[in-house]
C-alpha cells in the first residue's frame, strides 16, 4: 500500500502537483497521464524516494519514505526510470542480478534462488536468450525489456514504471502491459505506470491519475477518470472514443480544415 498525503511538487516555482491525497492499494494498477512537462516523472521520482516532496509526504507500508532504511525500501519498491545510462561492460543477466542486491544480506536466501529469480524475470520479458549479451550491444527495445526484468527481479510489492512500453514493438508493448495487469491481479502487486498510450494504459489499468499540468489532478477508476472530456482537458487535444469488440478505443478527434 502506498499513500500520498497533501503531496505537492514544484519545480522552479511552478506548481506541478497540488495537495495530492492518493492511495494505491494492493491489486491496483494505476496509469499516470498528462502532457509533456506535467510532472509525471517528477511524481514517480518522488514516490520512489529519489526526490524530496516540496510539501506533504509519501508513505509506503504505512511508513514515511524517509523513515525506511534504504535496503529495506529496496525490498518495498522498484523503480524504472525513463532514461538510463547503462553501465559499461555488463551483460544482461548481471544487471538483473544486481537488482537482487537488497536480498543478499538475508541468511535464508541463497545465490541459486537469486539466479532463478533473475532468469525468471528475463523469461517473463522474453529476453532470456540475451542473458549473456553485453547490455550496450542490445537494441533499444531489448535493453528496455532487460531493465523491466531487473525491476521485476527486485521482487517488490510496489512497482513504479516510467514509460515501460517506450521503444517496445507492438507485441511487446501489449505483452508488458498484460504482464503488469497480471502481476496486480494474480500477485496483488501495486503498480504505477506512466504512459502516453491511452489504449495500452486503459487496457492494463484499474485506475488512472490525471495530472492537469497546473497542480490540479484527477484520480479514480479508469471508467470514471478516463472519460473523453477530462482526458481532452488533461491532454489539451479533443479525444473521442469508439467501441470495438467490447473494447473502448481512444482516438484523437478529427479536426476540420477550418479549425
Ligand atoms: N532538474 C530540473 N530542473 C529544471 N526543471 C526541471 C527539472 N526536472 C524537471 N523539470 C521541469 O519540470 C517539469 C516536469 O517535468 P517531468 O519530467 O516531471 O514531466 P513529465 O510529465 O514526465 O513529462 P514527459 O511527458 O515529457 O516525460 C518540466 O517542465 C521540466 O522541464
From TrEMBL:
Chain ranges of the ABC transporter domain: 2-238
Keywords: ATP-binding, Cell membrane, Membrane, Nucleotide-binding, Translocase, Transport
Gene Ontology molecular functions: ATP binding; ATP hydrolysis activity
CDD domains: ABC_Iron-Siderophores_B12_Hemin
Pfam families to which the protein is assigned, alphabetical: ABC_tran
Coiled coil spans: none
Superkingdom: Bacteria
Matches recorded under InterPro entries: AAA+_ATPase, ABC_transporter-like_ATP-bd, ABC_transporter-like_CS, P-loop_NTPase
Keyword Cell membrane: yes
Transport recorded as keyword: yes
Function statement: Part of the ABC transporter complex HmuTUV involved in hemin import. Responsible for energy coupling to the transport system.
PANTHER family (UniProt xref): HEMIN IMPORT ATP-BINDING PROTEIN HMUV
Protein name per UniProt: Cobalamin ABC transporter ATP-binding protein
Amino acid at each position: 500500500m502506498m499513500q500520498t498525503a497533501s503531496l505537492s511538487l514544484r519545480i522552479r516555482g511552478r506548481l506541478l502537483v497540488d495537495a495530492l491525497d492518493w492511495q494505491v492499494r494492493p491489486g491496483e494498477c494505476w496509469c499516470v497521464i498528462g502532457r509533456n512537462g506535467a510532472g509525471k516523472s517528477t511524481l514517480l521520482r518522488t514516490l520512489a524516494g529519489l526526490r524530496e516532496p516540496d510539501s506533504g509526504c509519501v508513505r509506503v507500508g504505512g511508513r514515511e519514505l524517509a523513515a525506511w532504511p534504504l535496503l529495506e525500501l529496496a525490498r518495498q519498491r522498484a523503480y524504472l526510470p525513463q532514461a538510463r545510462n547503462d553501465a559499461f561492460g555488463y551483460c544482461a543477466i548481471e544487471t538483473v542480478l544486481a537488482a537482487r542486491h537488497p536480498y543478499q544480506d538475508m541468511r535464508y536466501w541463497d545465490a541459486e534462488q537469486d539466479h532463478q529469480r533473475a532468469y525468471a524475470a528475463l523469461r517473463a520479458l522474453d529476453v532470456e536468450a540475451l542473458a549473456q549479451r553485453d547490455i550496450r550491444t542490445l537494441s533499444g527495445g531489448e535493453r528496455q525489456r532487460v531493465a523491466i526484468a531487473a525491476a521485476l527481479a527486485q521482487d517488490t510489492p510496489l512497482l513504479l514504471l516510467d514509460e515501460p512500453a517506450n521503444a517496445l514493438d507492438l507485441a511487446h508493448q501489449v505483452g508488458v502491459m498484460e504482464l503488469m495487469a497480471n502481476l496486480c491481479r494474480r500477485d496483488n502487486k501495486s503498480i504505477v505506470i506512466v504512459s502516453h498510450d491511452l489504449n495500452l494504459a486503459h487496457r492494463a489499468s484499474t485506475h488512472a491519475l490525471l495530472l492537469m499540468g497546473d497542480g490540479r489532478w484527477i484520480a479514480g477508476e479508469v471508467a470514471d477518470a478516463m472519460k473523453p472530456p477530462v482526458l481532452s482537458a488533461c491532454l489539451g487535444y479533443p479525444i473521442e472514443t469508439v467501441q470495438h469488440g467490447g473494447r473502448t478505443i481512444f482516438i484523437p478527434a478529427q479536426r476540420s480544415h477550418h479549425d
